[in-house]
Amino acid sequence: MNPDRPERVDRTLIHNGAIVDIYQDKMQLPDGSFENFDFIKHKGAAAVIPVLDDGRIIMVRQYRNAIDSYTLEIPAGGLNGADEPTKVAAHRELEEETGYYAEMEDVEFLLSLYTTVAFCNEKIDIYVAHNLRKTAQHLDDDEFIDVEVYTPDELKSLILEGKIVDAKTIAALSTYLLKMSPAD
Amino acid sequence: MNPDRPERVDRTLIHNGAIVDIYQDKMQLPDGSFENFDFIKHKGAAAVIPVLDDGRIIMVRQYRNAIDSYTLEIPAGGLNGADEPTKVAAHRELEEETGYYAEMEDVEFLLSLYTTVAFCNEKIDIYVAHNLRKTAQHLDDDEFIDVEVYTPDELKSLILEGKIVDAKTIAALSTYLLKMSPAD
């Protein structure tokens, strides 16, 4: 076995959840001993930074049961099956959650991230959408979302003041702002 | 019930994991129907951006079973019980994972984030540590970590090139870099 890392010797399904499946992994450590690791399997997700022609960014505010509070986030959603291209999902979630439509060619890849590498494989591909056109929201039955619009400077302040707490949103917006900022 | 959001009517424990506990939440939607939501309970974590006197930042590289690959991250770790102050945990993980010590007064709060609000309450408080002094790593039995050092410009490039994929690390570093950058 690899002397520098734990090696998985078994994976047992514990529970099929609504959006994640729960596994227990039996790992062998380099010293030969065994330890159980949690593994949460997620089918992947996509998110999008919707940029209006004047540079302002469209955000969504919604109640999140897992943290029992409302959060300000970029639009995002799980893939319709693990095979759905993330760009298609980002394009769909943009219109469903914000009521703005972009042509597929105006949806550009920004970055990929894993939300919590210690125990979950959830990967989110994050895009930036331009040339937006107002249409209408199409929310899922369990989605209740308010749309809000902010300038990049306002979003930078909201991040630094701790008023945005969702990791994908902080990572996406601050990476977008860094990319936009002039080189030193 | 609140007409604008799902309301939790029951929470059932499914499994006590190694670092997370798995629940099934029964939610009532505003239309009166019921739906199951996943809820993953985590005790919380702390992370730290360790800044050397010359401005370079200490990073850790380690194998992550959940995504079956190696990641470049800021030092981080779970709390020793939900009551441990996150600053104490950040201070401890700094020395354990990197072999650098900081006085508690040189560990400064940067931001808090939730890693994946759709189904998990994991919150990470992220600090910045200065005036570091070399001591020695003290790794847990299941930790195998390489220490690497980068300039802020190198880390900005690694984020924009997609070579850093851990959400807390992207969020922490890009927020730190935004905060350091001159106002527009």
Folded structure, characterized:
2 copies of one chain form a homodimer. By secondary structure, chain A is an alpha+beta fold. Chain A has 2 domains: 7-41; 43-180, Nucleoside Triphosphate Pyrophosphohydrolase. The first copy, chain A, is 20% helix and 41% strand. Chain A is built from 3 helices and 12 strands. The first copy, chain A, has a 4-stranded mixed sheet with strand order 7-4-10-9. In chain A, strands 1-2-3 form a 3-stranded antiparallel sheet, with no helix packed on it. Chain A has a 3-stranded antiparallel sheet with strand order 6-5-12. In chain A, β9 and β10 (123-129) form a beta hairpin. In chain A, α2 crosses α3 (167-180). The first copy, chain A, is elongated and about 60 Å long. The first copy, chain A, starts with 6 loop residues before the first strand and ends with a helix. Chains A and B meet through β1, β2, β3, β5 and β9 of A and β1, β2, β3, β5 and β9 of B.
